[in-house]
Amino acid sequence: MLSSRILFASWDAMAHNVGRSAALLTFARSGNPPEFSQRGDKHMEQVTLRAQPRAELGTRPSRRLRRQGLIPATVYGKTADVQSIIVDGRELYSALHTEAGRNALLNVQIEGGDDVLAVAREVQYHPVRGEVIHLDLIQISLDETISAEVGLEYMGTPIGVREDGGFVEAIANSVNIAALPTAIPSSIVVNIEDMATGDTLKVADLPPIEGVEYTDDEDRPLVTVLLPRVEEEPVEELLEFGEDGEPIAVPTAEEGAEEAEAAADEEE
Fold first, then answer.
1. Confidence class of residue 242 from pLDDT cuts 50, 70 and 90?
2. CA–CA separation, 150 vs 104, rounded Å?
3. In whole angstroms, how far apart are CA 148 and each of 8, 142, 145, 222?
4. What residues does each domain of the chain span?
5. Better pLDDT: 143 or 5
6. What is the CATH number of domain 46-139?
7. What DSSP string runs through 4-57?
């Protein structure tokens, strides 16, 4: 079977990918592989996205479209075909905010043309308003493996936080996988309650999910529990004044102990 390696856009704060198809991953301090459980229906549903062909290209026409609530987009075919289209901004928002999030399977219905099954490859946002200003879609097939970036959600308060006063440092918020389009989980929930201070969860610690392959380096760290750094307070130097009025440095207790040991060594 031919594999089509398609890279999805990275997860960001605007991708709400919490869904019933999440995988529950548990990391145990004992070093045993985390247990895996599945919640809900894992298979993706297709989301309909209506579109119209786009005749005018360029910056000015695109700005006019956005003022009308329309988003310019590009569909890349499985061969060399490229189609410029227009989609409704509200419909696009709804399509990208299902349980599948940015990994949603989009049934793009182009007016006057054929329907295209696609996924979002790159979504560009306005830097201030956070609105979508352009969208790249790439055509897929349900029977071909694709690459996707799936978000990680860390749940629970680790033992190292509860008992040692440590803190959780999330090194990565997503993991790269390869799977059939219908087997891509909406998100992966990682239970970190059993993590102690110094524990680090890596890709290798994630249990296998049926039909899903982790493509990141297995030694890639994902999350760790650390102790806060304790900053030492500077020791103020004590001063005494001699007969001539000049200040004389008074050794600290530690320095005095070292001088006493040195003097004892000389006497032996």
1. low
2. 11
3. 5, 14, 10, 17
4. 46-139, 238-267
5. 143
6. 2.40.240.10
7. ---PPPPP-TT-----TTPEEEE--TT-PPPPEEE-S--SPPEEEEEEEE----
